Amino acid sequence: MKFELTMLCRRNRDGSKATQAGRLQVLRQVADELKALGFGRMGARSLKPKHVDALAQQWQGDGLAAGTRKNRMAALRWWAEKVDKSAVIARDNTVYGIEAREFVAKGSKAIQATQEALARIEDPHIRFALRLQAAFGLRREEAIKFRVSYADQGDHIRLRGSWCKGGRPRTVPVFTPRQRALLVEVRRLAGDGSLISGHLRYVDQLQRFKFATSKAGISKTHGLRHHYAQWRYRNLAGWPAPAAGGSGLRQLTPAQRVIDRRVRLQISAELGHGREAITTVYLGR
């Protein structure tokens, strides 16, 4: 079955390369888990409700986080859809004991790429990728694949869909001298190329990035997006976000609530999300 699932993924390249790779990894793991659960003679079209139930119980018994189980269920639904068996999986994750994710920040997860931390990273491509994450709220993959010759549009940068999660292109404003200076520095280093060293592949540079940032003590670089979101909120709203010590929604005046929603929608778009609700992860509520 593992081979058939691999072929299924290769024939159906939905989403970005990172999404495809993650889905393949999950489905290959699922194949191993089903075999260990006693379902050894399955093919890709053999998926039934009993298999989904067994996996859900196994994941819950293993103590996996709700978010992890939800992501794995998404991969199962993708599999079921591709073999015309969507009906074997319930639409509601609560059927499988998976509670809804709590999209509210519990304390700030924002981090900064300090000069001391950056100085501990030898590869200048990785240093600039981190600085791009901090300055524009980019995801790790977007920063590594960033090509300033394509992206720089003067008052904004544009991101190719192939760089972004879900293949969704977007733009991010350029409005500070520091952002402008950073783009000039990136162009000086990379020219028309990306921030992938030499002739390496993206996956190779990603592994170098993970190792270097872990060694420098800033491995959770998604926190740079949190810092960007909170900085943008204060800049646009005029007061700090709840996750950064500001007032929660209940404490805001009606006029401030209108501003809060408008600002959150803008930040959501800049971060590459399609929902205002996701901003509570970065900003609190």
Low-confidence spans: none
The main pleated sheet reads as: 2 strands, antiparallel
Q: How many helices does DSSP assign?
A: 13
- What is the straight-line distance between the termini? 45 Å
Radius of gyration: 21 Å
Topology:
Layout: H1 2-11, H2 17-36, H3 49-61, H4 66-82, H5 115-119, H6 124-136, H7 140-145, H8 148-151, E1 156-159, E2 170-173, H9 177-190, H10 202-216, H11 222-237, H12 254-271, H13 279-283
Helix pairs in contact: 1-2, 6-9, 6-11, 11-12
Summarize the structure.
With 285 residues, the chain is mostly helical.
Explain what you see:
Helix content is 55%, strand content 3%. 32% of the residues are buried. It is built from 13 helices and two strands; from the N terminus they run ααααααααββααααα. The chain has 285 residues and is mainly α. The model has no long low-confidence stretch (mean pLDDT 90). It has helices spanning 2-11, 17-36, 49-61, 66-82, 115-119, 124-136, 140-145, 148-151, 177-190, 202-216, 222-237, 254-271, 279-283; strands at 156-159, 170-173. The protein has a two-stranded antiparallel sheet.
Primary descriptors:
single chain; about 55% helix; globular; two-stranded antiparallel sheet; about 280 residues
